[in-house]
Design a protein that fits this description.
It is built from 10 helices and 18 strands. The chain has 351 residues and is α+β, with helices and mostly antiparallel strands. The longest helix is centred in the N-terminal third of the chain and has 23 residues, at 3-25.
């Protein structure tokens, strides 16, 4: 064997042994939790073929593989963070993948992609369940694409064969700096002035950058008519309310490399321990409500009128999940959604 193969084999054997011991102690633990417990990345466990996993390293920029996902037909797209999992069935359509940014704008799979943090790609067979998985520079999963009964399996295998890396090196990872660590700006009256001058919700990111503020710092300073904290049970309540009132909504879940969006109505939901779940055939959401440290109703002006969201944050200030009323650019917010969120607020929202 060459040095790459020798190095890989030694590291993989050690990790498989440690993984097996961890799983024996906590057999129901998911791979992400096991990785955290072992002090390694999920990508390293995948590379080592731990447990039932049989993984193939894929070569080339992840964007090249991402552009070809439409060939697979209907799949299940999964994006998660530490506190919430978003699963959506459909086809990858209208795929755009540049050097640092990308989009998927199909009616079912709707994604906003940030390729700057992406690093490795893998074809994974986990006990017979096939997927393509993308990981960032820290080895954290940013996006996974699962084969389903409706997927073109031959196309999946052709994609894997095309991009298989026949002599991969053991993946190297690095710590990605927290972008919020440098956001130590001072709140000034200009924050509210510029907030009120927004004409598109996407301008919010630029507003934070100009003022060097975290999301929570801005929400807490702008005024209760524009952002106000509400009870942490509101994330669960909004799901039950839109289901019972038949209000189509949008659910955004993301991490540093991906934001995945569901748009439409839901009916089926259920609590399982700490997890509150949406269980539709085409859309599943798994939200650990015990991880929610603060919840906000956020009110932004746009050229189409006010746009209102419910946002849940972790104890570290990270955005867990966002909910909006279903809408397209150029279309006003649903009055039923606006009325619902106004009803959650102890202080009137600007209108």
């Amino acid at each position: 064997m060459d040095s790459n193969a020798d190095n890989w084999a030694a590291k993989a054997l050690n990790l498989r042994q440690r993984y097996d011991q961890a799983k024996a102690a906590t057999p129901k633990a998911r791979i992400r939790a096991v990785a955290d417990g072992l002090g390694v990345s999920e990508a390293e466990l995948v590379a080592a073929n731990c447990g039932d996993i049989r993984a193939t390293a894929l070569k080339g920029p992840p964007q090249d593989i991402f552009k070809e996902l439409g060939s697979l037909g209907r799949v299940m797209a999964l994006t998660r963070n530490d506190w919430c999992v978003h699963e959506r069935h459909g086809r990858y359509e209208d795929i755009r993948a540049g050097k640092t940014m990308g989009l998927v704008l199909g009616p079912d799979i709707d994604l906003r992609v940030f390729f700057g943090s992406w690093q490795t790609s893998w074809a994974v067979n986990d006990g017979g369940r096939l997927s393509v998985q993308f990981f960032d520079k820290e080895g954290q999963a940013v996006h996974k694409v699962y084969v389903t009964d409706e997927t073109d399996v031959a196309a999946y295998h052709a994609l894997v064969e095309k991009y298989t890396d026949t002599n991969p090196g053991w993946p190297a990872f690095e710590v990605i700096p927290d972008p919020d660590a440098e956001k130590q700006g001072q709140v000034t009256p200009a924050l509210r002035t510029e907030w009120l001058a927004m004409t598109d919700t996407h301008e919010f990111f630029s507003l934070l950058q100009r003022h060097k503020l975290t999301r929570l710092a801005a929400l807490g300073a702008v005024g209760a008519d524009l952002a106000q904290q509400v009870s942490n049970d509101m994330a669960e309540r909004v799901i039950t309310d839109v289901a019972q009132r038949d209000i189509p909504f949008m659910c955004f879940v993301g991490n540093r490399g991906m934001v995945q969006i569901h748009t439409g109505p839901i009916k089926a939901y259920r609590r399982t321990g700490p997890w509150f779940n949406v269980l539709e055939p085409h859309f599943n959401l798994h939200l650990d409500t015990t991880s929610i440290a603060s919840t906000w109703v956020v009110n932004k002006p746009t050229s189409d009128g006010w746009v209102t969201s419910l946002e849940a944050y972790s104890a570290t200030g990270q955005l867990i999940v966002q909910f909006f009323g279903a809408r397209k650019p150029g279309v006003p917010e649903l009055s039923s959604w606006r009325d619902l969120l106004v009803g959650y607020c102890p202080v009137p929202l600007a209108a």
